[in-house]
Amino acid sequence: MRKLTLALAIAASMALPSLTQAREVTFNTVLQNYGGDGAYIALYLVDADGKYQHTLWVAGKKTKYYKHLPDWARGSGLRSSEYDGVSGASVLSGKALNITLGVADELIDTGYEVRVDTAVEDMRDNRADVSAPLTTDNAGKLFSGRGYVQSFSYTF
Amino acid sequence: MLRQLHSLPGLIAALFVMVLAMTGAILSLDPALERMDAVIPATGQISVAELTGKLTKNYPGIEQIVRTPSGTLIVYFTRDDQVGIDQVDPRSGQAIGPYEPSSFSRWIKNLHRSLLADTPGRVVVGITALVMIVLVISGAFLLATRMGGWRQLLQPARGSLSQRLHIRFGRVAMIGLLISALTGTYLSASTFSLISERLEADPELPLVVSAGPPAVIDTLSVLKVTDLNNLRELVYPYPGDSYGIYSMTTDQGAGYIDPISGEWLSYQTHDSTHMFYELMYMLHTGEGLWWLGIILGLAAMSVPVMALTGPIIWWKRYKSKPKIAANSGANTADSVILVGSESNTTWGFAKTLHDSLVQAGHRVHTASMSQLASNYRCAQRMFILTATYGDGDAPTSAKQFLQRLGKISKKPEFTTSVLGFGDRQYPQFCGFAKEVEKALSIKGWPQLLPIDTISRQSPQEFARWGIALGKVLGIELTLAHIPMQPHTTTLVLTERVDYGVDVQAPTAVLRFKMPEQDNKPSLFNRLLQRNGLPHFEAGDLVGIIAPGSQVPRFYSLASASKDGVLEICVRQHPDGLCSNFLYRLALGGRIEIFIQSNPDFRPASGKAPIVLISAGTGIGPLMGFIRHNWTHHPMYLYWGGRSPESDFLYEPELNIYLKDKRLTELNAVFSRTSERAYVQEKITLDGEKLRKLIKNDAQILVCGGRDMANSIKTALNGVIAPLGIDVTTLKAQGRYREDVY
Fold it and tell me: Using CA of residue B446, residue B448, residue B452, residue B456, what is the dihedral sign?
């Protein structure tokens, strides 16, 4: 379990008119046994129009492979300022990624969606392997992925 | 220096190099297998637009098309909210089946790239690739030196089995291995960003897209003009994506395509770094160049042979090198001892001298003659102890001495003395030592002691020389040489066939085996199907130490250890200590033997004919060659004896081999019959035929006494003179080999 309170809240405060409080959210991404090398995973938020907003986490250390996380790469422009301090190791087949971050209240129940892009070397890249609206109701609910993700959930 | 550069990295990295080569060889098959599966339309036949049109029907949820360098077409899609990958036929757009790269291949690939150890593994692999470059290049230079120049690189390999294998596989695979190693090092360096980043700048992400409804994909103009064979990747817009643009990578460049106008929104041609990387990648993997992959894979298969024979060669050399204690460096020693030795006995004397000088307080540097340095900074005296090989030639460890000496122009500060080792019975006694002495005096190198000689390893003569040396140096020098006895094996005589008593040439073919009680082979030997005999092959030499003698006598072997017997052919010489001992040995009698390999004296492999020439007991090793000639290599035997009734050695056996084709032609001549012929006369008589054989690359093996060998040489020179060559030419090509006693 990785714990970290994030600059995200601050970043959000800049983008949004007012800052209220940040909530701790734990994102749990469980991978299938897809039988390949470690997966690169990007967790990020898109707005109601599907437009990239913020990076939550990037798993995978070699930045040169980041372009294989297609939608996130396009949205973030692969600027290192977008993922500085929110990246870690790639996740092995069949293992889970647990991330706890502070998320500003304004982002919850306001139409934002959590997206997960995944990529594995020599296997296909998946945009929006998971799309999960970030709402209080959905907390604890299991979302299934289309690619390497078996299930995705978040809890407050 | 070059040798260390080759053997040291080789020894350290042998295992890793082997793993990389084996996995590489397996992976090399992938592009060829993939190519067999792939359907590749002719260029200009199918455009990307045409393909996408067909795919739209079969894959409504299509997300991406990838075309591998081998031409396999892969489609990524979503169906019923599950993602899938299919391999498709480019002509119909129909699925061939799900695309599932084999997990075995992936595992091998990971082993190849990272030894399954991620980044640390990749570092090791990268270093191994670099080592590989060093090994190939240093190996090539070593080989060129050994063969006597780059032009001689393809001459027949000589040496022990390990050496021959190492050379043969090495020179065939050299280029392939160098390509693999260079490209591998490049890829590794680019992985670690040690060289310019392989990633080129991506095309600019367009911000403005034409207004209006998206066009049908197969009407997009860029896709229409792009040939399928140029496609690398086409990524569809994500459904609901407000950008809604296509991105495409081709062999030439990459960019984004407007879904409405069908034109490039942005496009960037691949830069030279990218192109170079792609080229390196292709050369390394064979992806897109399957036949090269196969060639490189085959080359890689030679690595295990090299990785096994290399350490064996090194170990044998290391073991045979005498251990000189307190050996000073070339530039710190006041006394330098250079050794020219064929079978290491001279090294024993050098060691005695070395130890005595060290004891007397000198700093001594001992090395082989071939290691002659251009400068010895502190040297006051140099000793050259050398044996002679064959007819006045340089022994193995002195082969490069005269050449190196020739290059030194500066007259040294130190004085030299030469000591020759040999056998006074032979006409060219200490021939090479005398040649060295002559070369030194021509160069005007100052002398410490005049040349002296030691016959038959006499410790007395050596001690006498030591006293003379001590006088000059003004020290008490006692050279007490105890000859090193090689490790011997006891054998018992089990069979003998006698010939030639009637013609005053009493000769016997003797067969020895391991004594009964020692005949229970160990489990190890049984596993190797060995019979307890030390390893030897026909043509090697057996050293036999007769009782009451310290000096071994050498006989050529007529059998191989795998035959289970040790066979020699001995003629009784009136005064010969050893030949009398052997000739009089009764069945059940025992001898002490050791093996000295003689790998140069062997029939060459291949299809070229072999001419075997001998007289008297010289037939021994040739008999061994014929006996083992199961591949029916054309073999022509010329042999001279005295009388067909008395000393026709091996007559019944030779007739059998003629019949079963192991022997092509038998020319036996006799000196005590009415024809009164000698073998060299037969050679001259058969000149026409021999010229033809030699034109067909025949190899000539001569075994016999010194006089006979010389007459053969003269006769052959006469025979081949019309071809514009002589025996020396043939010798240099490895096609004329002698075993002379």
Answer: negative
Domain boundaries, chain B: 2-32+105-198+280-316, 40-90+201-270, 321-473, 489-596, 610-740
CA B360 centroid distance within chain: 43
Q: Report which residue type is found at B22.
A: M
- Kindly state whether A147 is in contact with chain B, defined as any CB-CB distance less than 8 angstroms: yes
Domain CATH number, residue A30: 2.70.50
pLDDT at position A78 is 84
**DSSP codes, B675-690:** T---HHHHHHHTHHHH
* Domain total of chain A: 1
Q: Domain B321-473 is classified in which CATH homologous superfamily?
A: Flavodoxin domain (3.40.50.360)
Three-state SS at B531:
coil
B489-596 and B610-740 share one fold: no
What lies within 8 Å, CB to CB, of A58 at 6+ separation is A40, A41, A42, A43, A66, A69, A72, A83, A86, A87, A88
Highest mean pLDDT among B209-223, B311-325, B496-510: B496-510
**What is residue B148's predicted lDDT score, i.e. its pLDDT?**
67
Contact between A125 and B64 using a beta-carbon 8 Å cutoff: yes
pLDDT, tens only, B171-222 = 999 999 999 999 999 999 988 877 765 455 667 766 666 777 778 888 888 9
CATH of domain B610-740: 3.40.50.80
A26 or A71, which is more confident: A26
Question: Is A116 part of any domain?
Answer: yes
Distance CA B77, CA B62 (A): 4
Residue A53 in any domain: the answer is yes
Closest chain A CA to residue B235: A70
- What token pair was written down for B561? 């250890």
Residue A143 lies in a domain: no
Give a yes or no: residue A152 inside a domain: no
Averaged pLDDT, B457-473: 88
What mean pLDDT value characterizes chain B?
87
Tell me if B243 and A123 make a contact (CB, 8 A cut-off): no
Please answer yes or no on whether B85 and A124 come within 8 Å at the CB atom: yes
Q: Does domain B489-596 have CATH number 2.40.30.10?
A: yes
Distance CA B91, CA A22 (A): 56
Q: Is the dihedral of CA B282, B285, B286, B288 positive or negative?
A: negative
What is the spatial distance between Cα B104 and Cα B48, in angstroms, rounded to a whole number? 32
How far are the Cα atoms of A28, A115, B408 from residue A152, in angstroms, in the given order? 6, 10, 79
Cβ–Cβ contact B101 with A under 8 A: yes
State how far residue A51 is from chain B, nearest Cα, in angstroms: 8
- B205 with A35: Cβ contact below 8 A: no
> How many whole angstroms separate alpha carbon A9 and alpha carbon A102?
6
**Proportion of chain B in helix, strand, coil states, percent, rounded to 5:** 45, 20, 35
Backbone angles phi, psi at B193, to 5 degrees: 55, 30
Q: Which residues contact B724 (CB under 8 A, 6 or more apart)?
A: none
Q: Return d(Cα B11, Cα B98) in angstroms, integer.
A: 45
Question: Is the Cβ of A137 closer than 8 Å to some Cβ of chain B?
Answer: no
- For residue B235, list chain A residues with Cβ-Cβ distance below 8 A: 70
Q: Which domain holds residue A56?
A: 2-138
Give residue B88's pLDDT: 93
Q: Which residues between 104 and 123 in chain B have a beta carbon less than 8 angstroms from any beta carbon of chain A?
A: 106, 109-110
**Cβ contacts of B238 on chain A, cutoff 8 Å:** 70-71, 127-128
pLDDT digit string, tens, across residues B650-660: 999 999 999 99
B160 closest CA partner among B302, B319, B317, B322: B317
